Amino acid sequence: xxxxxxxxxxxxxxxxxxxxxxxxxxxxxxxxxxxxxxxxxxxxxxxxxxxxxxxxxxxxxxxxxxxxxxxxxxxxxxxxxxxxxxxxxxxxxxx
Length: 95
Known about the structure:
This protein is mainly α. The chain contains 3 helices and no strands. The protein starts with a helix and ends with a helix.
C-alpha cells in the first residue's frame, strides 16, 4: 500500500470522528448566536467602512466605486450599441 493511500485512509477516519464529535457543538445555540452576532457586526463595520471610503474618495474629487461602476456600465452599453451598428452596416453593405 502506498503512502498516499495510508495517509488518506487515516485522514478520512480522523475527519469522520472529528465531524461526529464537533457537529452537535457547532450546531448549538451557544455557538451559533455569538457567531451570528459577530458576523452581523462585521458586516455593519464593513458597510460603514465602505461609506467612509467613498466619502473620502469623493472629497478628493476622485470617482467612487459607484461612479466607476456606473461609467463601466455606460461604456458596455455603448460598446454593445456600436457592435449592433457595425452588424447593421455589414448587413446593409451585403444587400
